[in-house]
Amino acid sequence: MKKNSIFKVQKDAWDIFLRGLHAVDPFSAIERNVKLTGSILEIEGQKYDLDNYKQVIVVGAGKAGATMSRAIEDILGDRISFGHVNVKYGHVDTVNTINIHEAAHPVPDQAGYDGAQIIYDILKKTGEDDLIIFLLSGGGSALMPLPAEGISLVEKQQVTNLLLSCGATINEINTIRKHISRFKGGYLAGVAYPSTLITLIISDVIGDPLDTIASGPTVADNSTFDDCLRILKKYDIIAEAPGSITRHINLGVAGVAKETPKKGDPIFSKIQNVIVANNMNAFKAGKKKAIELGYTPLILSTLIEGETKDVAKVHAAIAKEIRKSGNPIAPPACILSGGETTVTIKGNGLGGRNQEFALAVAIEIEGMENTVIASIATDGTDGPTNPAGAIADGSTIERGKKLGVSAVEYLDNNDSYHFFHKIGDLLISGPTNTNVMDFRIILVV
Fold this sequence. Notes:
The protein has 2 domains: 3-19 and 280-444, glycerate kinase, domain 1 (3-Layer(aba) Sandwich), CATH 3.40.1480; 26-146 and 181-223 and 260-277, Rossmann fold. It is built from 15 helices and 15 strands. The chain has helices at 3-23, 26-33, 65-76, 110-124, 153-166, 170-179, 187-192, 225-234, 243-253, 279-292, 308-325, 353-364, 396-402, 407-412, 416-423, and strands at residues 34-37, 40-43, 46-49, 55-61, 82-88, 98-103, 130-136, 196-202, 271-277, 296-304, 333-339, 371-377, 389-393, 426-427, 438-444. β10 (296-304), α11 and β11 form a beta-alpha-beta unit.
């Protein structure tokens, strides 16, 4: 394989990703969906006369929150009375009226708790003559930690770490979060009622279920305490979970602790929930870029989940089939896929699901020519690391061997970061201020 050719394909993969990322830019997403004409605010056909409200208040949580805030300020200007939005450390932007409050993700910290308490206090003081605009995006669940009575922030951190390390899906993690919170699972809607509430959402969840995105703070919850108990049993972590949390869940199963708000509750009667961007927006844009670059593109699915190593094997098999038979599309081929996989941690290395995917796929495509596969987090940070992901090709494993590093050993130790750091194939974008799950690219030329 000629060096120039593989570098060109790698650059194509990055350019396709950047085009997709641009399509889910929070500022553009808000501007596409929110219009102000005179005093009339229009969102998805629903109109609000701002002259009828005593206050317009902006609150929110998520990795895209700062740029969403800048967009709302650009549209509403001095009609915003005040605001407060929790964001991940480093995911900031320039705003005037809205306070941007940085906190930790994915494991919540005291700063997140303090910011959530501020939002709670703001909402408790609102009334039926107020309009609340809630900006919600990926990471919003961890960035707005307000545990239920009797549960401490430390205990919430402990159970979050347990769920992240055992391989639980984001839906399962959020089911637990909803039932140990004063905000999630529809509870925020109750705190804000009877104000009018508009939630503008950038989805980072497979299939865009409103009750799962950031643990659904403004929608009715379909999950139950019984589901929580089932999840703890499924991953055999009941004994490891903090006693206050298992007691709270057991009280809920017994009907003593109050369930999350369900469909038909009047607290949802004055709410509009609108998804302004999701991963399909990103993949449609990426597909157009692939065509411009001369590839035949195919969006495989935006709904892929499962164990990262297993998903990597499937993607490698698709690349091999393209090379062998020209199916499902012939080279030059571009396969795009999205979703959110999980990593069951067994080692003590460093990495994220995208880097782990790239390392697992590199092992499967060893020796394949003219093939590049990348996996990238659209928020710009993969797990607890700075890179957004990593890129692999048929020479990845051999290049590692020449440097004395074994891909299999690094994968077994969940140490994908250090493997790719050594061979120089980490993908670094910095915080993108958006999040629509992961963006995977297969290029076969």
